[in-house]
Amino acid sequence: MDFKVKGEEGKARVGELKLKRGTIHTPAFMPVGTAATVKGMLPENVRSLGADIILCNTYHLMLRPGQSIIKQLGGLHKFMNWPRPILTDSGGFQVMSLANLSKRFDNGVSFKSHIDGKEYFLSPEYSIQIQQALGSDIIMCFDECTSSEATEREVHKSMNRSMEWAFRSKTALDSSLGGTLFGIQQGGVFHEYREESAKKLMDIDFMGYAIGGLAVGEPQDIMFDVLDHSTKFFPKDKPRYLMGVGKPGDIVGAVLRGVDMFDCVLPSRSGRTGQALTRRGAVNIRNARHANDPRPLDQDCSCPTCQKYSRAYLHHVCKIGEIISAILLTWHNLHYYQELMGDIRSAIYNSELDHFAKQFFRIQKEGDIPLI
Length: 372
Fold this sequence. Notes:
The chain has about 375 residues and is α/β, with parallel strands linked by helices. About 40% of the residues lie in helices and about 20% in strands.
């Protein structure tokens, strides 16, 4: 891995992260392909929108089809027809999101499959083994993600456990099998625990650093406050990844605070539920006001959806549950996210990010313009 910062404005950075399978232009957004597919999209379409890297999920791929099958079939890239970089999360988020199906221990987490109830045990060592069997380019440490409702005592205990698991994850990594390992900072909304976590991770020494445990229910201003305090502890010559974020405004605000990489299910999940994400905020295409609207979702968007289909048509196919609705809205949403990242990179290169951000938030606040 080679990471170079090419330009800066305040805390924001624009750069290039070079991996064996391709270069990632940062700040970067990673579409989420949880089970080896970005829902509603062909891999070549995802790439055509500008995505340099996608994210897949260790826990879900462990359940089905299983890492051994994927490895036998040539690895995850060949299996899903995505020849460019892939980041795999470790399964740590599922410790929180599937809390009713899991039990936590110092040596790992036992899960009951949400599919058939079969029991699995995921440890730092096994998570790394799975990710290397998949052939991941960026491998995440196994960690424990706490909810926004966790007490300070619970957060501190969980952070210390995650740091122990980070050490075990690095020890378990077989360098001969490839893959770049990122550490994950935890500590909830508590500044002192975020600092403690960052320092422990840097003592272990990773090729990149992620900020975990945010976007789990806390208000945006709290998340930004934590980022203001968190990113400054990480080395400037290594990438910083904010996990599970997020809404367009979250991304712009996080870039202003020094974050380089993002992922979120929002663009594809929103596309499947009738929501388009635009320069003027979210548009619920199911609303009756779109039924006879000949305009595109976003008049300034160059995606195939906006160039060829009206709001009226999208309203129609969404209301009757046609598959094309999810495809077209997801296509637009992912295009918008990649276009947003490109605009952010250009703004940093030209020392115009502050102006860009002010204009972005102003237009988002104004909202969608109804048909007159």
